[in-house]
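lol forgot to send this yesterday, sorry. C-alpha cells for the thing we talked abt
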C-alpha cells in the first residue's frame, strides 16, 4: 500500500533511514540534531509513529529507534521521489546542484504517484541524482556502489568522483567551486598525517588544491 504521509512524518522517516544505514538503531537525540527540533518533539513523534497501524518505527526509550519494514518501504518511496525530483530540477530545469535539495523537499509531498512514474520515464529511470546519491528503483532496491571515501584514496592514485554526500547547501557550493563534482577525475598527490588534509589535482585544472578531512570524508570515488 502506497500511503501518502504528511511532510513532518516523511522528514522523520527519511532522517531515521539515513541515520540507521550503518546501524540497526539511532537515538532520539541524534534524530533531534539531524532534524533541528527539540528532543521533546522527537519523543512525541516517535510515540505517534510507533502506534500507527501498521507501525512505521520500532521505538523503545532505552534502546533507541529503528524503522519497521513498513517504515523502510515508506522512507524508500520518499527518497526515490525526492531524488528523481532533484535529477529533474538539475537536468531539465538547470538548477544549480546546491539548490535542488530544498526545492525537491517542497515538491516531493505534492506530486502524485502517476506524476512520479511519468517523471521516471522522462528521465530514463536514472540510478543516481545530481549529487551521486543512489535512487531507489521502481522495486525500491538500491543501485550497487563500490565507492570509497576520498579520504581513503592512496597517494598518486587516480579516481572518478561518484558521490558527494554534503549536508549543507554552502558545502555543495564550495565543493562545486573547487570542481569536486560527480564525474570529475581526481588524483591525490599527498596527505598531511597531522590534520589528514589532502593535496589533489583535477583533470581539468592544472593546479593542485588542498581540502581538509571534513570535506574529503563526504566525497566518494571509484579508483581507476
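and heres what i got for the seq, position by position
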Amino acid at each position: 500500500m502506497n500511503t501518502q504521509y504528511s511532510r513532518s512524518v516523511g522528514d522523520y522517516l527519511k532522517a531515521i533511514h539515513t541515520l540507521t544505514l550503518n546501524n540497526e538503531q539511532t537515538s532520539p537525540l541524534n534524530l533531534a540534531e539531524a532534524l533541528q527540533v527539540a528532543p521533546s518533539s522527537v519523543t512525541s513523534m516517535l510515540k505517534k509513529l510507533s502506534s500507527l497501524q501498521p507501525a512505521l518505527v520500532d521505538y523503545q526509550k532505552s534502546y533507541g529507534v529503528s524503522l519497521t519494514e513498513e517504515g523502510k518501504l515508506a522512507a524508500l518511496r520518499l527518497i526515490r521521489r525526492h531524488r528523481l525530483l532533484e535529477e529533474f530540477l538539475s537536468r531539465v530545469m538547470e538548477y544549480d546542484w546546491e539548490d535542488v535539495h530544498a526545492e525537491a523537499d517542497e515538491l516531493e509531498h505534492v506530486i502524485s504517484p502517476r506524476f512520479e512514474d511519468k517523471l521516471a520515464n522522462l528521465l530514463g529511470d536514472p540510478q543516481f541524482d545530481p549529487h551521486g546519491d543512489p535512487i531507489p528503483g521502481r522495486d525500491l532496491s538500491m543501485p550497487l556502489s563500490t565507492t570509497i571515501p576520498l579520504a581513503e584514496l592512496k597517494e598518486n592514485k587516480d579516481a572518478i568522483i561518484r558521490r558527494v554526500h554534503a549536508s549543507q547547501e554552502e558545502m555543495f557550493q564550495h565543493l562545486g567551486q573547487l570542481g569536486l563534482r560527480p564525474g570529475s577525475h581526481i588524483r591525490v598527490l599527498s596527505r598531511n598525517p597531522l590534520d589528514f588534509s589532502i593535496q589533489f589535482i583535477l583533470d581539468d585544472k592544472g593546479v593542485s588544491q588542498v581540502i581538509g578531512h571534513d570535506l574529503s570524508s563526504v566525497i566518494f570515488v571509484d579508483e581507476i
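The longest strand covers residues 158-164. anyway ping me if u want another try
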